[in-house]
Amino acid sequence: MTLRARWYFALAVTLWVAAFARDSFDDWVDATELPSLILATSPEVRARDGSLLRAYTVADGRWRMAATVGEVDSEYLDLLIRYEDKRFYSHAGVDPVAVLRAFGQAVRYGRVVSGGSTLTMQVARLLEESGTGKVGGKLRQMRVALALERRLTKDEILNLYLQLAPFGGNLEGVRAASFAYFGKEPRRLTTAEAALLVAIPQAPESRRPDRHTDRAKAARERVLLRAVRDGILDDDEAQAALTERVPDARRAFPQLAPHLADRLRAADPLDMRIETTIDAALQAKLEKLAVEAVAGQGERLQVGLLVADHQTGEILASVGSAGYTGDARQGFVDMTQALRSPGSTLKPLVYALAFDEGLAHPETLIDDLPINIGGYAPQNFDKHYRGTVRMRQALQMSLNIPVVLIVDAIGPARLLAAMDRAAMGYEIPPPGKPGLAIALGGLGVSLQDMVQLYAALARGGVALPLHVTGEDSAEGQRLVSAVAAWQVADILSGMPPPPGSPENRLAYKTGTSYGHRDAWAIGFDGRHVAGVWLGRADGTPVPGAFGAETAAPLLFRVMGRIKPELAQLPPPPPATLLLSNAQLPQPLQKFRSRSAAFVVADAPAVDFPPDGAQVELLPEGLLVRVRGGKAPFTWLVDGLPLARDQRDRATILSLPGRGFITLSVIDALGRSARAKVQVR
């Protein structure tokens, strides 16, 4: 008889003696010092539907994921118990029948044919990380198994096995194995998958399917044939399972929203299961879209995307970069949190404050002329001036002079106070004193806070911090009146969509920071708000990056990933004044800034036709007239000069045809103005 056969004989004798010394045996079992039953499991960050966004290894680098009987496929459990320990639910931790059978086989064949370990004994071994070949170790496993059965329920013992069973390499437990080999939770395993996961722990390294596919397949076959023999499966089911491919490589564990997961993990390192409001399907779509957005755009262009439900404040998707890597794009930087210049995306808040304070109305006229306020002489992005325009046009065209005049009237501190009420973080460049330049993006804010601001406008002027875990219990802060918020939303919903995008009246605004370092687009419908940032993580310029041309089309694609149709914006509040400029009260007809005296009054402006007008083409041509400026004048249509050195303020231009044109006039000092009109 071999040595291993002899220790089976010793175990059989031990059990037989124990039966005649019950009291002493009970005392011996009760005195067992158990190892810790609290397992360190992989911290997990989960989506709103409970699916896994990201998991982390335990301290020693192993994947050991929490699992319970209720979270595992029932067929897997049936196969496991039938194959490993068919009397699991009836024995007390040690199965005398199995031990005696193993002893009999060892005596008959002179070698160990089958083991006598129960699932509970395997749990005891795994808890103590003890070996299996020595008699002393086997006796210790039996003692611990007997003690476990007295202190735990059968399901609790199974739960320990489901988390500790080895599956090769650094994989422990059925959930980790299911993700690594099948890329899914073990709730709905196929018959073949379940059989493979039953087979691997018996010899986890030699049966690893990613290294020893043939051995894994053979072990799976033995489990399936045993199941047929025991009546768990019929022949057809087993044959179908045998044809299923065995995975020959490990899959990556889920890593959706990695930047967000890292932040949440760092904020609460002791929370092993972090539940979030993230929509896993939407998150996956937007991460793929982010990769597409930067493809072919150079190795340094980066993107940030964020989507929220502005009615609840729940963040539904947060894409920090196009790739969670340390490459030239610096993908490890979370661009939803980085402080960047917002460009023109703060302008809607400025207009909302002006409307809220009764300083202006969407139809109020305001001058777009050169100004110099205490040495600060801002210019429009295109260096042109439009003369007198309506507030609605000024915001839609993103003109700089009007918004600076408004901030000069309300004061920069008023704008910052509104940002504080919106719970926005911001950073003002040295020397730290806010000036008029903040209206044009002269401060640093994050994409998440900008989306939070637009969510307040979409919510009727009530600011509520966006949140990604639990329910935000904070009460909303009134940022602006419901009327002012609706007026701004109405203006933004009249923005023309980018070429090729759907005509869906999305309320949105774009922005480009100084030096083309940041391109933004933020928008909302009646339910969702989304934000897009494009640029370089290191803050260097991106030549040719414009919010309207690069970020806006991406914003419309983001909204298309959320749902096929936009939710309608709400109707105007009852107190809204839906009037033309001529019907407004006199103080609201023309905006008067405190710095009106600093406006360069003699700058040129297209007096006729006014911007946005529809005019008839006369037989002799188009009548045009300039106001202000210094002669001689040059007139251009769509950038082509049609009349030079004009001393008169009125002239007739010969046009090649009808349609929409951009009419420009330049005076002797190089100052310009333009108007967009339709010639019929």
From TrEMBL:
Domain Glycosyl transferase family: from-to ranges: 60-226
Annotated keywords: Carboxypeptidase, Glycosyltransferase, Hydrolase, Multifunctional enzyme, Protease, Signal, Transferase
GO molecular function annotations of the record: carboxypeptidase activity; penicillin binding; peptidoglycan glycosyltransferase activity
Top-rank EC class of the record's enzyme: transferase
EC nos: 2.4.99.28
First and last residue of the signal peptide: 1-21
Pathway the protein takes part in: Cell wall biogenesis; peptidoglycan biosynthesis
Annotated SUPFAM superfamilies: beta-lactamase/transpeptidase-like (SSF56601), Lysozyme-like (SSF53955)
Domain of life of the organism encoding this protein: Bacteria
Domain Penicillin-binding C-terminal: 601-677
Ranges for domain Penicillin-binding protein transpeptidase: 305-513
InterPro entries on file: Beta-lactam/transpept-like, Glyco_trans_51, Glycosyltr_51/Transpeptidase, Lysozyme-like_dom_sf, PBP_1c, PBP_C, PBP_transglycosylase, PCN-bd_Tpept
Reactions that this protein is recorded to catalyse: [GlcNAc-(1->4)-Mur2Ac(oyl-L-Ala-gamma-D-Glu-L-Lys-D-Ala-D-Ala)](n)-di-trans,octa-cis-undecaprenyl diphosphate + beta-D-GlcNAc-(1->4)-Mur2Ac(oyl-L-Ala-gamma-D-Glu-L-Lys-D-Ala-D-Ala)-di-trans,octa-cis-undecaprenyl diphosphate = [GlcNAc-(1->4)-Mur2Ac(oyl-L-Ala-gamma-D-Glu-L-Lys-D-Ala-D-Ala)](n+1)-di-trans,octa-cis-undecaprenyl diphosphate + di-trans,octa-cis-undecaprenyl diphosphate + H(+)
Pfam families the UniProt entry points to: BiPBP_C, Transgly, Transpeptidase
One term under GO cellular component: outer membrane-bounded periplasmic space
GO process annotations (BP): peptidoglycan biosynthetic process; proteolysis
The family this protein is said to belong to: In the C-terminal section; belongs to the transpeptidase family. In the N-terminal section; belongs to the glycosyltransferase 51 family.
NCBIfam families: PBP_1c (TIGR02073)
PANTHER family reported for this sequence: BINDING PROTEIN TRANSPEPTIDASE, PUTATIVE-RELATED, PENICILLIN-BINDING PROTEIN 1C
Name assigned to this protein: peptidoglycan glycosyltransferase
Upper taxonomic lineage: Bacteria, Pseudomonadati, Pseudomonadota, Alphaproteobacteria, Rhodobacterales
